[in-house]
Amino acid sequence: MTITLISQVLALVGLALLGMLLTRLTRLELTLSCMLIGFLAGLGIGYVDFDTGIRAHNLQDLVFFVILPVLIFEAAWHIKPALLGRWLVPVMVLATLGVLISCLIGAGLVYVGIGHPTGFPWMAALLTGAILAATDPISVIDQLRKLDAPEDLTTLFEGESLFNDATAVVLFTLFLGLAMMEPESSEMTYLGFFAMVFFGGLLVGIVCGLVSAAIALYLANPAATVLVLVFSAFGSFFLAEHLFHVSGIMAVVATAVITRWALSDAEERLAGGVGVTWDWLGLFFNSILFVIMGLVITVDMFKERWLAMLIAIGAALVARAAAVGLCSLATSPLKHSIGFGWQLLLFWGGLRGAIAIALVLALPVELDYWYTIQSMVFGVVLFSMLVQGTTNSFLVKRFGNPL
């Protein structure tokens, strides 16, 4: 059993490394290379009689409790608290009202487009809308940094992505609970449930961040600081989800931001090498996630669900445009508002990636429509990588200048 598990882990790591090599050779995006390697490996697995260990029932725990905490903490750690404070109101409007708008519009368009209320009910559309509301603009942020775009724009992208991921996961959890008819999701109003999970996760994260910073300061050892931070990433997520039943993603985001703020005076002395640690952990787990996506994609998925994929792509684009436009209008009176050029960047740069994949892989196969939702989300992610990700550099060069 142990040998089998080790071989499966080594196989996934090996495929991720092959993806990195392919990126080096072809200059493809890393996520696309890893997905392609995973897809090719999936085609060949049947001929070599190898079991990857990937199962529908264990993917949720792998993705939620191992991969997501690292990806979220790594992204949150790089945000500068001062800049986040400057853009906090627009970020929170985009991450709450914007996600809700995107979810509802996307769900409505998908529901009407599919046009099969028995095979694809309204709850399936809501789950799809919630998943596609989560953005993951990693490649766009890389482009912004390479082009020396304003830090404010990068912070706006990163902050919105982080917090809207948390909101999208809360909505996904709510709709999934209703779809599975779990009583705990219906004991209070939807708004009350959302507020409890979202702000409960924030509170858990604040406490975990302060405790982590206190321990790091007391130990006063750079290596120990790295260990404390890695532990806090996994620990805050686990505590929030398992013990308090609130948003694990929100807890991880708050833990990272609060810890960095509390260690600001001692960051160079105690946490100077932390960025390197989170860089390789983020690279590793992001690669693994896209390898898994490649492994579970099948050719039949494109043959059987191509129309649903096209409907989802259109719905996702329209929903994102509406969310960005309406939220920018709502925050226009603020001192730090979002100009038209930056609105275009937020719209086209709102790629779907790791979080959308993580959520759709967590769908229970007991739901009759899980395969249709998975196909649609994979289609949108592929469109994000192949079309939006490769053409966005033009918009970044054109509109990435200071306001």
Structural features, described:
By secondary structure, the protein is mostly helical. It folds into two domains: 53 residues, no CATH class; 346 residues, Up-down Bundle (Na+/H+ antiporter like fold). Helix content is 80%, strand content 0%. The longest helix is centred in the C-terminal third of the chain and has 32 residues. It is globular, with a radius of gyration of 20 Å. The chain starts with a helix and ends with a helix. About 1% of the residues have low confidence.
Listing every helix as H and every strand as E from the N terminus to the C terminus, the arrangement reads HHHHHHHHHHHHHHHHH
- Which CATH architecture of the largest domain? Up-down Bundle
Number of domains: 2
Q: Specify the number of helices.
A: 17
Helix content: over 70%
CATH uppermost class of the largest domain:
Mainly Alpha
Tally of strands: 0
- How far apart lie the N and C ends? 58 Å
Largest sheet: none
| Share in β-strands | under 5%
Averaged pLDDT: 84
CATH topology grouping of the largest domain: Na+/H+ antiporter like fold
How many whole angstroms does the radius of gyration measure?
20 Å
